[in-house]
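## retry 2 of 3
previous attempt timed out at serialization; input unchanged, resubmitting
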Amino acid sequence: MSVLVYTESEKGKFKKAALEVVSYAKAIADQMGTTVTAVTINADNEDSLGNYGAARVLSIKDDALNTFNAKKYASAIENAAKNEGSKVVVVSASADSKYLAPLLAVGLEAGYVSNVVEAPSSVSPFTVKRSAFTNKAFANTEITTDVKIVGLSNNSFGLVESGGTATIEDFSPTVSESGVSVESVDKAADKVTIADAETVVSAGRGLKGPENWGMIEELAEVLGAATACSKPVSDLGWRPHGEHVGQTGKPVASNLYIAIGISGAIQHLAGINSSKVKVVINTDPEAPFFKAADYGVVGDAFVVVPQLIEKLKAFKAQNA
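## retry succeeded, writing output
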């Protein structure tokens, strides 16, 4: 009857979101008077999950699962949930988890609530708070099914270290065939991904052309940040579509989001509203983004950004 949590990894390494969902599952388990069991797929360093609250780890090692496949992954997690008799399953808000969660819900005949931002206010009845209307409101939602699936919004609960240890157990589920195969996967190397980034530096048409993106990449490098862009920029081909953030692109829930030369269309704001601190640099003082920003600089990006880079480098040098 433990709380089951799916912990995502990439090339064997756990993503930050994986540690966050374990921390969150531990909070639920404490309320229910039970423990946390984590499911890992081809991951390394699994004992580290104990530090965030996992008591047991079901370790799946299967070459057939080296590449993400929603149906296969959902089938493996369903096997684990039934094996454990889990009534609560926790997943992250990653694109992969959003693909597999509905399939998992069907397999477990479970209610699924996404965009959850807090630990349950009650476990009987099981009630969670979730963001709604593109982060403009919150809804307290009761899950009435016997099995419940909770999708935790990224960067909403945080990492909570408990100093515990986890028992690692091999687990070999029966995995359903999906009828879908992946021939190749292309990913950017040596870059911080938008999904895992604590800081995101994003730019729009105010940069006037792709040839001016060097200073954005330099600022991101200094901050250890991911780079992103607005939809018009990706549509124009200035930047890859994988960097497009917003309602129709990738959602961002970073600790710091810096928008440079982006006016702040409602679709863009909807995708970045979960970021905790928003900084805007724009020449137009009437740009809509300033109404949503925590800090704003009215100025020319070609003047402000190089000065910001210079100051940040000097600060890092003094505090190295």
